[in-house]
What does this fold into?
Amino acid sequence: MSTATDWPHPPLPLEGTVIDSHTHLDVHDRNLHGLEIPDPRELLDRARSVGVDRVVQVGCDLESSEWAIGAARKYSEVIATVGLHPNEAPRRATAGDLDSALARIAELATDPAVRGIGETGLDYFRTDESGREAQHRSFRWHIDLAREVNKTLVIHDRDSHADVLSVLIDQGAPAKVVFHCFSGDATMARVCAENGWYMSFAGVVTFKNAESLREALDQVPNQLLLVETDAPYLTPTPNRGRVNASYLMPYTVRAIAERRGIPELEMCTMLSDNAINAFGNW
It folds into this structure.
């Protein structure tokens, strides 16, 4: 029997295959949960064994962005994004090196392994008023970069829904936009849908207290729906609070399929097609 300090048991394999549209394989290296640190190859193999056959490895700072590119070169299942997380921007600004960090992201963005720019956006949960100017400047810069290099913009939005939408519309969104770990309400989902922006749902959608999020899910057109883990965070029920990994994503896929009344295999095909449309094939 597994305990809270073990890796969770894997779910039954999916009837089809799906793509984890947002994960952090490198964060496991920081040993956040006190577990034995698996090799990324092992995590990818675990995911494949349950039907999660590809992942988008997301950069949050310079180190993780460079790591993402290396992982994409090493593992055929992986593509990369590069960017500065909205909470990284004020830290860099305080240190006086935000401009140089952004310049390095611009260099990394031209790598063929990179399919997305971000995660970027706004986060008012962890950053107070003093850091918001840097967040906004960084977000606008990433929007411009995504347009310049014609790559998908990956947005992090926490407690900042109205401002994220306002900045995105004001600055002019790139051709493809993904709201990672969508956390808005039904009204926001309709705004995103009207603009053709993808909405990606993580394990939160399985939580008992997340009915408002499921109501938002109801507003997402089939062609704009993505699924993710944000691993090692946001572990779906029945393992909420434990370490997350791509191999646990079937719980989220099944919850979404049940909510929308779509057969599991059809849902898998739809989600995979959408991820390929959002990021290109690999």
About this structure: Strands lie at 18-23, 52-57, 78-82, 114-123, 152-158, 177-179, 198-201, 225-227. The longest strand covers residues 114-123. The CA atoms of residues 21 and 260 lie 19 Å apart. The domain at 20-279 is CATH 3.20.20.140 (TIM Barrel).
